[in-house]
Specification:
This protein has one domain. Helix content is about 45%, strand content about 0%. The protein has 3 helices and no strands. The radius of gyration is 14 Å and the shape is globular. The termini are far apart.
Length: about 90
């Protein structure tokens, strides 16, 4: 049974998701990725905002690339009604 708090399945194309990712708050996006993937290591690694949320354009691009993968996996799992192949979550 699908979790009623998971939202509705969506079929937005990768291209449209990538375009939308150009206009988001990267620190907020990173937190959302943790919820979508179940992987808290996404905010524990090398990609972290520095004071006031600053990140280099290179790091922002890396986060957007990762986000596209996580969002596509989330979308595809919901559309196909299967369990996500989410990264294993190890709480420390």
């Amino acid at each position: 049974m699908r979790n009623p708090h998971a939202g509705q399945p969506f079929t937005t194309s990768d291209e449209d998701v990538a375009k939308a990712l150009l206009d988001v708050s990267i620190p907020t996006l990173m937190l959302s990725l943790v919820h979508m993937s179940g992987d808290p290591d996404l905010i524990r690694g090398g990609l972290k905002p520095a004071g006031q949320g600053y990140m280099s354009e290179e790091d922002k691009s890396a986060v957007r690339k990762l986000a596209l993968e996580v969002i596509a996996d989330y979308r595809d799992a919901a559309v196909l009604n299967r369990s996500r192949s989410a990264r294993s979550c190890c709480w420390r």
